[in-house]
Amino acid sequence: MGGGKMIGVMMVMTMVVSVSSQDYGDALTKSILFFEGQRSGKLPSPRRVNWRKDSGMNDGKDVKVDLTGGYYDAGDNVKFNFPMAFTTTLLAWSVTKFGQFMDPDLQNALDAVRWGTDYLLKATSTPGTVFALVGDPFGDHNCWERPEDMDTPRTAYQVNTTSPGSEVSAEIAAALAAASIAFNASDSQYSQTLVTQAISVFDFADKNRGSYNDAIGSVVCPYYYCDGSGYMDELVWGAAWLYKATNNEYYWNYVQHTINNLPKYIKVMNTDGTLSYRDNFGEFGWDTKVAGINVLVSGWVLQKKLDPSPFVLDADRFVCTILPESPTKSVTYSPGGLLFKSGPSNMQHATTLSFLLVVYAGYSKRNRRQIQCGNVVVSPDRLVEVAKGQVNYILGKNPSGMSYMVGYGDKFPNRIHHRASSLPSMHAHPDRIDCHGGTSYFQTQHPNPNLLTGAVVGGPAADDSYPDSRANFSQSEPATYITAPLVGLLAYFKANS
């Protein structure tokens, strides 16, 4: 018995040493740098990602509106404003929640938020109109081309009073409201601009209800950015952020009144193209905001000792869908411990859901409460432990010993599905590379010539295998909404490890 106990102690000590060896500060710096590699528009000088140049400089010319700037969401050259707005919301939430742990990276994090909000202000500058997409996804996906060389159409697609898009509009309102909080201390004038526009855009989204699936679904739905959960969750999400930003009771009343109108199930597109349905309370991502609403709202419900129903109760239910030991767990875990849900780019679930676990752990700990999952009682520290396991897996504590963040550690993906990273830079190859001129670079087995530092890819398969293949975009493509919540997580673990 004594020998067995000693072996157990040694195993625990080994695990602790391995976990503590992660350099969360380095990973944080790199995760923020990733967003600079995703920038569209006129790039500032000097720039830290020096292989990227100006791109999309005529965006919006077809509608006589300046729509330059913003982010390419993933490895292509299209600006999908729905996931871009969610990315901006999560970056702002990361800053407001964990910014105190970000030095010396706080200013760079705020710059990342501002690059998103500056663009979203432009996209909502025309009364009665919200621009939801810039670029032609069909033309773009037919080419393997540097953003600096783009010659595919840069069509601006809009939603308006006759063809509404409440989900994209309300998510933009959430992003602007969340960012207004992030900038309140450092730039009060900009903060006021953001919240004023957030109020206006939310009002537009609420009074002109309808899904952008109907307005511009022909260009967003084939590319996984169809809204499968309806637009009501974005309206509640936007109102929740506006209440947090303004303390106006109108928005709190809106949240309380509307939360019970959300669909109980959401439609999910699986990797193989089939559809499945899941309970909404366990979902959080660019499409579905329900778990995020419940965690966010629980912060002030618990603080003010308000009625916990349904927010705290559903946040508890959400936690119980994640924890490995919970009898109501609805996610799966790979043999190496990575969280899995159906659909492409699985790593987005590992980062977004872990972010919620850490935020909710803080609220629960502050209010001296534990969480009951059937007959299992869970402490706030356990939520942090599960989230930390996911972060550590991403950074290399996995069966392959591979970091899934480009540029972090000794072993990471070299052939990511990303046009700018995989094609020679303008400096290395000044001559234009046309639409199909990049095909050979896509097909080669050589590593990408440009390091997109901080990019987190879609991740390994459910058996922990990772082929490192550009063609396998579901696993090898990075996305802004994968990394945005990781920024907050890394800041937290940098200071609390």
UniProtKB/TrEMBL annotation:
BP terms from Gene Ontology: cellulose catabolic process
Keyword Hydrolase: yes
Active site per the UniProt annotation: 417
Domain Glycoside hydrolase family: 24-490
Catalytic activities: Endohydrolysis of (1->4)-beta-D-glucosidic linkages in cellulose, lichenin and cereal beta-D-glucans
Keywords: Carbohydrate metabolism, Cellulose degradation, Glycosidase, Hydrolase, Polysaccharide degradation, Signal
EC number(s) stated in the UniProt entry for this protein: 3.2.1.4
Pfam families: Glyco_hydro_9
InterPro entries: 6-hairpin_glycosidase_sf, 6hp_glycosidase-like_sf, Glyco_hydro_9, Glyco_hydro_9_His_AS
Annotated signal peptide: 1-21
GO molecular function: cellulase activity
Family: Belongs to the glycosyl hydrolase 9 (cellulase E) family.
Record-given protein name: Endoglucanase
Organism field: Vitis rotundifolia
